[in-house]
Amino acid sequence: MGVQGPMPLLVVLLVCTALGKPVPCGRRNDLKPLIVGGIESVQGRWPWQASLRFKKSHHCGGSLLSHRWVLTAAHCFRKYLDPKKWRVQLGQLTSKPSLWNSKAYSGRYRVKDIFVNSEDTTRFHDLALLRLASSVTYNKYIQPVCMLPSTFVFQQQPDCWVTGWGVLQENKKPLPPPYHLREVQVTILNPSRCYELLRIPSLHPFNNSDLFCAGAEDGSADTCGGDSGGPLVCNMDGLWYQIGIVSWGIGCGRPNLPGLYTNVSQHYNWIQTMMVLSSAVRSALVLPLLSLTLLQAP
C-alpha cells in the first residue's frame, strides 16, 4: 500500500516550491461522431492515453499524470528495465504512426527513470511511474488524467471505460490496420463478487485491496494482450479519474472471469510523493530554500 497518514512538512514545502499550482486534469474534447458500439475510438477522446514503446513498437499502455510523469503497470518492465530503451507516445490514435507523421514524433518522449512501488517487499504491486526526460506540451489531444485517494464511489457505476491497443480476442493476431485505439465500457465489481467469480485467495476482500475486478460477467467487455498498463477511467461531474491500471486476467473475454486492475487509490500517496520528491531533486534551489525555511521556523 502507499504511504499513509498526513503529508509531512518536507513534502508540503516541496510541493509549493517545485510544482507550483496544480494543472487542470481529466478534461477531454467530446469529438463527434463516435463509433457506434464504443469499439474504435477517435483522436482526442482519451487525451491521457500513452503508448509505451520498446524497440520502436507498442508494448504496453499508460496514462499521462502531468508534464513529466506517466503511470503504467510494473510487469511491463520485467524483462526490459533500461529506461533508455523506452519511448512514450502521446496524442496519437494509432499505435503505428506513419514515418511521415511529424506530429507523432513531436509527441514521442524519452524515459529518464522507471520507479516501481517496492515499499512492501513481501508483495508485488503492479504499477510503475515513468519520469520523462523532457516536459510534455499539452494540446487538445494531450491532457493529463485525474486521480483520487479513494475510488469506492465508482463501484457498480456504469460510466467507466478502459482503453488500449491490445489484441481483440484471446489467441488472436495483433490489432489489425489501422491500429487504432479501442475503448470499451466496463462495470466495476464489488470485492465480494470478484472473489466469488475468481476464487483466488489473494483476492479475498479481507486480504487484498490492491486489486479489483472490472468487465462484463458475460465476457463481452474485457482487456487482452497489449492493453497492460493502460488506464481504467470513470467520469464524475464532468471530469475523468483514473481508478485502475490494466494488470492481468485469466484469458480474455471469458464469461465469469473479469479482468483484474491495480487499484490506483491504494497507491495515491506513493504516487504523489514520488512525483514531488523526484521533481524537487531536479531543482537546484529546492534544498537551499528548504534549509533556509527550516532554520527560520520557530
TrEMBL record:
The keyword Ribonucleoprotein does not apply. Keywords: Disulfide bond, Hydrolase, Protease, Serine protease, Signal. CDD domains: Tryp_SPc. GO terms for molecular function: serine-type endopeptidase activity. InterPro entries: Peptidase_S1_PA (IPR009003), Peptidase_S1_PA_chymotrypsin (IPR043504), Peptidase_S1A (IPR001314), Trypsin_dom (IPR001254), TRYPSIN_HIS (IPR018114), TRYPSIN_SER (IPR033116). It comes from the Eukaryota. Residues 35-276 form the Peptidase S1 domain. SUPFAM superfamilies: Trypsin-like serine proteases (SSF50494). Residues 1-20 form the signal peptide. The keyword Hydrolase applies. GO terms for biological process: proteolysis. Gene3D superfamilies: Trypsin-like serine proteases. PANTHER family: SERINE PROTEASE 41 (PTHR24253:SF79), TRANSMEMBRANE PROTEASE SERINE (PTHR24253). This is Peptidase S1 domain-containing protein. It comes from Myodes glareolus (Bank vole).
